[in-house]
Each structure stands twice: as structure tokens, then as C-alpha cells.
Design brief:
With about 80 residues, this protein is α+β, with helices and mostly antiparallel strands. It has one domain: Alpha-Beta Plaits, CATH 3.30.70. It contains 3 helices and 4 strands. It is globular.
Length: about 80
């Protein structure tokens, strides 16, 4: 799983408390949710997906008590 850092992705982190990840087209939302919650010790409010070409993007909205900007800083995205 790869975190995406574009202008739009950074705006989503700041405005929507949402992180964007890219992963295999075969991966399901439930798998991504379990993996991220286990690794980063966070809670996820919801996940939206977008398939573009051979890539699948996961838009991961964190619950209010978890700040996406903090996680992005830990990951070195910002």
C-alpha cells in the first residue's frame, strides 16, 4: 500500500481528515480498513474507492478523534 501525496491529497488531509492510498485492484475495502487500523492504531469512519486504469485508490476518512495531519506527519508525507 502506497500513500499518495498530491496537491489534492494534501487538501483532503487538511479539509476532510482523509488520507489517500494506492493499492492493488484486488484489495477490498474491508481488508484495507483492518490493515490500516491494526498498523497505525486508528479508527476509520469510512472508505471510498476509485479505480483508474490498473490502479485502485482508497480514500480513507478517519474518525474525528484521529487527526489525518498527525498520521501524515508520522508517515513523512507532510
Amino acid at each position: 500500500m502506497k500513500a499518495i501525496v498530491t496537491e489534492k491529497a494534501v487538501l483532503m488531509i487538511e479539509r476532510d481528515n482523509t488520507l489517500v492510498f494506492e493499492d492493488s485492484k484486488n484489495k477490498m475495502k474491508e481488508e484495507v480498513k483492518e490493515e490500516l487500523e491494526r498498523i497505525f492504531k486508528i479508527k476509520i469512519e469510512g472508505i471510498r474507492t476509485k479505480i483508474q486504469g490498473n490502479k485502485k485508490y482508497f480514500f480513507v476518512k478517519l474518525k474525528k478523534e484521529f487527526i489525518a495531519m498527525d498520521l501524515a506527519s508520522k508517515l513523512g508525507l507532510i
